[in-house]
Amino acid sequence: MSIPRIDLSNFDENYEKIKIEIIDAAKNAGFFMIYNQDSPSLETISDMFEYSKKFFDLPLKNKQDIPFIKLKNTGYEYFSQLRPSTLTVDQKESIQLQLHRQNENWPLNDNLQPDWSIKVAAFIEQCQELSMKLLRIFAEELKFPSNFFTERHDITKDTAQSTLRLLHYFKHDDGDDNDKSNLWRAGAHTDFDVLTLLFQESTSISDVEPGYNGLEVCPGRETFTTFGIGDKWTKVPAKLGDIVINIGDMLMSWSDDQFKSNFHRVRIPNSNEIQQDRYSIAWFNQANTDVLIQGPLKKYPKTTGKNFIEDAMKRNYSLIKSKEEEEKKNF
Ligand SMILES: O=C(O)CCC(=O)C(=O)O
Ligand SMILES: [Fe+2]
Q1: How far is the CA of 282 from the centre of ligand 2 (A)?
Q2: Which of 45-49, 202-206, 220-224 has the lowest mean pLDDT?
Q3: How many domains is the chain built from?
Q4: Any idea where the Fe2OG dioxygenase domain is (predicted)?
Q5: What CATH number is attached to the domain comprising 47?
Q6: I need a labelling partner for 75 at 20 to 30 A (CA). Which of 9, 39, 51, 124 fits?
């Protein structure tokens, strides 16, 4: 299966055509790529990767000054994200940033400030604006008012849950001959959120460079409750400027499973491939904590933005526990 690539140029004039392409992609692949959006520009995206690297280049102890707070989904983590699909931790470090927590849990390091926070905040606002343009399409398809999702994703309120995540996957040592067969940059998972915008990096927009690749998606998931993992994976080449969009579990539920939240993963390059660090940036749109979530067909019981995320975390945790038990038995 190929991943649809959708041209967003002249968005207002081409709205109806773009809408058809996006809805088709959301109902089938669950993933698509967009390009030629007004904003963020290629230059802004490329600058964001430099700001991201500036942060990750800080000494570990400085990064750890911004602790990861699970329930707030904010802060810095280092080799700590355990995936139910693999029972191993992702080979990465990442920081999650929310606009309304700028004075609470953002890096204040002198090497970054003053412009780091200003640039990151401006980027968040651009991601938000682009996301709301896309979510209008989903709202209309579900016969909700056009601004339905915009009103429910207010990132200026204290109840906001949307998050920018800067990710850095470490380059593996050539000399390291430990078994990597079950190690992943990001183990297979679906996203909990409504809609994810994922920015990948390449040094040139025309050439795809194998060293930055690794993202793979698995289309064809039927329902978010099964945790079923298919085995046909499609490669999504890294290309600066192509924004990868995926539907998350929250929108799948909100659409009574019409839009598909699909599994994806990031693999470690094989020994015969170029070895290099990988950086990516994700913007996760999540409804405010107090928003009521239920699809037009009422397929699932009504829940709130807060409970939806907490339940997803609990489900993940219990899946890890039951898989660990199973492995112990088989040992
Ligand atoms: O880095 C990537 O390409 C994917 C990241 C991802 O899927 C996630 O953080 O949810
Ligand atoms: Fe993801």
Answers
A1: 8
A2: 220-224
A3: 1
A4: 159-287
A5: 2.60.120.330
A6: 39
